[in-house]
Amino acid sequence: xxxxxxxxxxxxxxxxxxxxxxxxxxxxxxxxxxxxxxxxxxxxxxxxxxxxxxxxxxxxxxxxxxxxxxxxxxxxxxxxxxxxxxxxxxxxxxxxxxxxxxxxxxxxxxxxxxxxxxxxxxxxxxxxxxxxxxxxxxxxxxxxxxxxxxxxxxxxxxxxxxxxxxxxxxxxxxxxxxxxxxxx
Length: 184
Hints:
Helix content: 25-40%
Mean pLDDT: 86
Distance between the termini: 36 Å
Shape: globular
Strand content: 5-15%
Radius of gyration: 17 Å
Number of helices: 5
Strand order of the largest sheet: 2-1-3-4-5
């Protein structure tokens, strides 16, 4: 696996100016289960922040791991801080007023497709540093970013390596490759 991690470090990070070494990369069987399993490192008493709407795996795995507390009549759970993403805020969540321990962020976002600029990610990194929380950053759709000004990794932001864990997916990159028989 070290060969694969070296290629990931070089091609997905180092070529974009992000200093990451192979020993900082963990290659797994997929990021869905990693979203649940990573929470086990942090214990059961954590407050989790998620975007609303959100890719279901963040909330579902948090519920399945028993970290959410009681489900209220509106379908929301006690120990989840819901961060609305709607037309009013440009589908970019506001920084939580209630301090979470873990923050799930996904850009480009699933399901909204919203991307985050470096300024937006810097605001989140600074918040996590100041509030002493961890960002669980899902970059599964970074292969779809076509604008040079939009970061592909939260690690493009100064200080992020101290407060963020990034998840990637290579399946999306494969989906973008057009078979030779279909290319013009």
